[in-house]
Design a protein that fits this description.
Order of helices and strands: HHHH
Radius of gyration: 24 Å
Number of strands: 0
Structural class: mainly alpha
Low-confidence stretches: none
Number of domains: 1
Number of helices: 4
Shape: elongated
């Protein structure tokens, strides 16, 4: 792995750590959602610290250049992250539907109470 790539990955992982911690401290990001991003940055940091691991991984997979293995791993992580976000969006969509139903029931009860009090 070239020195430029290692420096770029190191800077990127440190920026991700700092950004996530900043968002968690200022309550713009929930801790349970930040775990995936922190793991992502940790993996990038491991690639920088132990580049030989990715040389071995690339040869094991049959990829000639370790840089291509790094891109393959990153694409895989992006795919996993998109899947995780999709699962969370689906879960929140279900919660929104339940809340909408509860609000409509409460609104109906409120309207009935208003009509009852007007009589």
């Amino acid at each position: 792995m070239s020195t430029d790539l290692r420096i770029g990955l190191l800077v990127a992982s440190l920026l991700v750590f700092i950004l996530i911690l900043y968002f968690v401290v200022h309550r713009r990001f929930y801790i349970k959602y930040s775990i995936a991003w922190l793991l992502w940055a940790l993996l990038i940091l491991l690639m920088v610290i132990f580049p030989d691991l990715f040389y071995e991984l690339s040869h094991l997979i049959g990829i000639e250049m370790p840089v291509n293995a790094v891109f393959l791993v990153m694409i895989g992580l992006l795919y996993a992250l998109v899947f995780y976000v999709y699962v969370m969006i689906s879960k929140h969509n279900d919660e929104i539907i339940k809340l909408t139903y509860s609000i409509s029931v409460l609104q109906k009860e409120l309207d009935e109470l208003k009509k009852k009090n007007e009589k």
